[in-house]
Specification:
With about 180 residues, this protein is of the alpha+beta class. It has helices spanning about 20-35, 80-85, 105-120, and strands at about 10-15, 40-45, 50-55, 60-65, 70-75, 90-95, 95-100, 100, 135, 145-150, 155-165, 165-175, 180. It starts with 10 loop residues before the first strand and ends with a strand.
Length: about 180
């Protein structure tokens, strides 16, 4: 166990957890902070998540995904007792740092992460251009090849010219239904 560590400033630290247990660790740690009266040393517990758009059964869904699976962030002042409370929370495998001494992460990193988490609507990542050849990977035209005819970045839609019975047919698709060839 470390001796009085750090400069008694509140900083953000990274905990390593068993993957899939991040929310469980967050919940347990919050209960332990309360039951052990650690509110003056351990301030915030954060499981970084971001919203992503997925297509399931042809429907667009916004899902929350962990940005760093297996990690939980904790804002705390590291002392012997606060270190002990966090370290001995079930499913916590340790702090990120050298040996037993946790290494704080910078304010810039936290701000960047909070910005990334704070995006209420996920942005569409459209990495094709008009005229580019694509393959349709979902929907009624799955496995057809086509050419990008028009891109609507605000709606995340793409018009694709698909050759059906020897004729170019325009089809509107979600950008998640295609991939570059």
């Amino acid at each position: 166990m470390p001796k009085q560590i750090g400069d008694l400033e509140k900083k953000w630290y990274v905990l390593h957890t068993y993957s899939g247990y991040e929310d469980n660790v967050s919940r347990n740690l919050k209960q332990r902070i309360e039951s052990m009266g650690m509110e003056d040393k351990i301030f915030s517990v954060l499981v970084p998540k971001e919203k992503k758009i997925k297509i399931k059964n042809g429907k667009r869904k916004t899902v929350e995904e962990r940005i760093f699976p297996g990690y939980v962030l904790v804002q705390m002042i590291v002392t012997d007792d606060s270190w002990y409370v966090v370290r001995n929370t079930p499913n916590v495998t340790g702090f990120i740092g050298s040996g037993t001494i946790p290494t704080p992460i910078s304010e810039e990193e936290i701000k960047t992460l909070q910005k990334r988490m704070g995006v209420s609507e996920p942005k569409y990542k459209i990495d094709v251009v008009v005229g580019e050849a694509i393959k349709i990977i979902d929907g009624p035209f799955k496995d057809f090849d086509g050419k990008v005819n028009d891109i609507d970045p605000d709606r995340g839609k793409i018009k694709v010219l698909v050759s059906v019975f020897g004729r170019e047919t325009p089809v509107e698709l979600d950008f998640l239904q295609i991939k570059k060839i």
